[in-house]
Write a structure and sequence with these properties.
Residues 48-453 form the Amino acid permease/ SLC12A domain. With 482 residues, this protein is mainly alpha-helical. It is 68% helix and 0% strand. The chain has one domain: Amino acid/polyamine transporter I.
C-alpha cells in the first residue's frame, strides 16, 4: 500500500477491527418489582391486614372503659383513619413507590423523617404479624378443646407454622399472595355479616341482650379516653395499601379506590362486630377475651355458626399476617435500596420478582416475639409505631400542599377539606398518645427511647452511605420557595 493510495481504498484494505468480530457486551438487566395488581388487590391488602382487628384485640377497649366507651372509641378512631386514608390516597397516588409512607417522607420532609417512618412501618407490621400468629395458635388450641382434644395441640407450633408458610408464599410472588388475601378476606367479612344476621338484630332481646349487658360507662367519661388506645385496632393497617404502590398497574386509580372502599368496609365491619359482641357477652368478660367473635358464635349455641366463625377468625388472622409480611418487607426493601439500611436488603429475586431478602430477614424475628410476648404487648407496640407514623403523615400533607400546590403537579386523587383532615388527625393522635400513656406508659417511653437511639445511629453512622441524589424519582418541578 503506497502513501498515494486513495484514503477510501486504504481503509477498505485494512483488516476488520477485532472488536467488530467479538460479541457485544451484555447489558445488565435491571430486575424490578412486577406491576400486576388492581384495585381489588389493594382492597384485599388493606382490609386483609385490618379485618383481624374485628376478630380480636379491639375488645381490650371494653376492658378499659366499658362497652359504650369502646363504641365511642371505635367511631373516633374511624374518623382518625378516614383522615389517614384520604391523606394517603392523595400522596401515594402521586408518589407511587414501594415503601408507602417512607417514600412520601423521603420526597416531602427529608432523610431523618424518612428513616424513622420506615422503622415505624416495619415495627407496626411486624408486631401486627406477631399478634396474628399468637391468635392463630390460641384459636386452634381453643377449637381443639371444644372438640375434647385438650392437651393434644401445641399452639406455639402453629405460631411458627403460620409465619414460615406465609413468608414462603410472599417469597414466591405478590400476585398469588394478594389473590389469596382477596378470597379469604372476603370470606372473613362474610362471616361477620352472617353472625350479625344470625343474632336477629331486628328482634331486640331475642338473642342480643344489650340492656342487661352493656354496663353503660363503668369508669365515667375517662373510660372513653382510655378506650381510644385499643379503638385504633379496628382499623390499624389500612394505610398498608400504599406499600403496593410500585406493584399496581394504575396507581392513580387503584390506590384511592382500593383504600377508600377498604375504609368503608372496615367501618361497617367494626360497628357490626361491636353490636353483636356487646349483646352476647358481659362487658367484664368481653374486655379480656382473646377471640371475641368466635366466643360470640359459641354463645349462640349453634354448632355450624361456631365452625363458620372459627374459619372466619382463622381466615382473618392468616390474611392479616400475609399482608403484614408483604408490607414490612416492602418498607425494609425500599430502605435498603436507598441505602438507609444495608443495600443487601434492596435485592429483587430474579425469578419471582419479590424483595426476598427482606422477607426472609423478618421470619426469625417474628417467631421470637410470637413465642415470648403477650398479645396485649404486641398490639401496643404495633399501635404506638402506627401512631408515630400518623403524626408525621399529618405534617407530610401540609408540606406537600405547600411545596407543590394544586395544579403544579398531576395528582391521582385530591382529598377534600384540606387542612381539616390533617388537623383532626393530629388532635386524635395526641388524644391516643395520652390514652396509651395512661395504660402502658412504660412501653410508650421505651418505644420513644428506641426510636431516639435509632435516629442518633442513623445521623452519626448510616447517613454517610445515603445517596441523596438517587432518592428522588418523581419528575416534579422544584418546590415552591426553593
Amino acid at each position: 500500500m503506497t502513501t498515494g493510495q486513495p484514503i477510501a481504498e486504504r481503509v477498505a484494505a485494512q483488516p476488520p477491527a477485532e472488536a467488530s468480530t467479538a460479541p457485544a457486551p451484555a447489558v445488565p438487566r435491571k430486575v424490578a418489582l412486577l406491576r400486576v395488581l388492581g384495585p381489588g388487590h389493594v382492597w384485599a391488602l388493606g382490609v386483609g391486614i385490618v379485618l383481624v382487628g374485628e376478630f380480636m384485640g379491639w375488645n381490650f377497649a371494653v376492658g378499659k372503659g366499658g362497652a359504650v366507651a369502646a363504641l365511642a372509641a371505635c367511631w373516633l378512631a374511624g374518623i382518625l383513619y378516614t383522615c389517614v386514608a384520604m391523606i394517603d390516597s392523595e400522596i401515594t397516588s402521586t408518589v407511587a413507590a414501594a415503601g408507602g409512607q417512607y417514600a412520601q417522607a423521603k420526597h416531602i420532609i427529608g432523610p431523618l423523617a424518612a428513616f424513622n417512618v420506615g422503622l415505624y412501618l416495619v415495627m407496626a407490621y411486624t408486631m401486627l404479624e406477631v399478634s396474628n400468629a399468637i391468635v392463630t395458635g390460641d384459636l386452634i388450641e381453643a377449637f381443639a378443646q371444644s372438640l375434647g382434644l385438650e392437651g393434644t395441640v401445641d399452639k406455639r407450633a402453629f405460631m411458627v407454622l403460620t409465619v414460615v408458610a406465609l413468608a414462603f408464599l410472599n417469597y414466591r410472588g405478590v400476585l398469588a399472595t394478594l389473590t389469596l388475601n382477596l378470597v379469604i378476606t372476603s370470606a372473613a367479612f362474610a362471616a361477620i355479616v352472617v353472625l350479625f344476621v344470625a343474632t336477629q338484630p331486628w328482634a331486640p332481646g331475642a338473642v342480643l341482650k344489650h340492656e342487661a349487658l352493656l354496663g353503660a360507662l363503668p369508669y365515667g367519661s375517662l373510660g372513653i379516653l382510655a378506650a381510644m388506645h385499643f379503638g385504633l385496632w379496628f382499623y390499624l393497617g389500612i394505610e398498608g395499601t400504599t406499600q403496593a404502590a410500585e406493584e399496581v398497574r394504575s396507581p392513580a386509580r387503584a390506590l384511592p379506590l382500593g383504600t377508600m372502599t377498604g375504609m368503608m368496609t372496615l367501618l361497617i365491619a367494626a360497628t357490626l362486630t361491636w353490636y353483636v359482641c356487646s349483646g352476647l357477652m358481659p362487658w367484664e368478660y368481653l374486655g379480656q377475651a382473646v377471640t371475641p367473635l368466635y366466643d360470640a358464635a359459641r354463645l349462640t349455641g349453634s354448632r355450624w355458626l361456631e365452625l363458620f366463625l372459627f374459619l372466619g377468625t382463622l381466615f382473618a388472622t392468616v390474611a392479616s399476617a400475609n399482608g403484614c409480611i408483604n408490607d414490612a418487607s416492602r418498607a425494609w426493601f425500599a430502605m435498603g435500596r436507598d441505602r438507609y439500611m444495608p443495600v443487601w436488603f434492596g435485592a429483587v429475586h430474579p425469578t419471582y420478582r419479590t424483595p426476598y431478602r427482606a422477607i426472609v430477614f423478618f421470619v426469625p424475628i417474628a417467631i421470637l416475639f410470637a413465642v415470648s410476648t403477650p398479645l396485649d404487648q404486641t398490639i401496643t407496640f404495633s399501635i404506638l409505631s402506627g401512631l408515630l407514623g400518623y403524626t408525621l403523615m399529618a405534617l407530610s400533607i401540609v408540606l406537600f400542599r405547600r411545596k407543590w400546590p394544586l395544579g403544579s403537579i398531576q395528582r391521582g386523587y385530591v382529598h377534600p377539606l384540606h387542612p381539616l383532615p390533617a388537623v383532626l388527625l393530629l388532635v386524635l393522635c395526641v388524644v391516643t398518645y395520652l390514652a396509651v400513656f395512661l395504660g402502658y406508659g412504660t412501653q410508650l417511653l421505651a418505644m420513644m427511647a428506641f426510636y431516639i437511639t435509632a435516629s442518633a445511629w442513623f445521623v452519626l453512622h448510616r447517613y454517610k452511605y445515603v445517596r441523596r441524589g438517587d432518592q428522588f424519582t418523581m419528575p416534579w418541578p422544584k418546590p415552591r420557595g426553593y
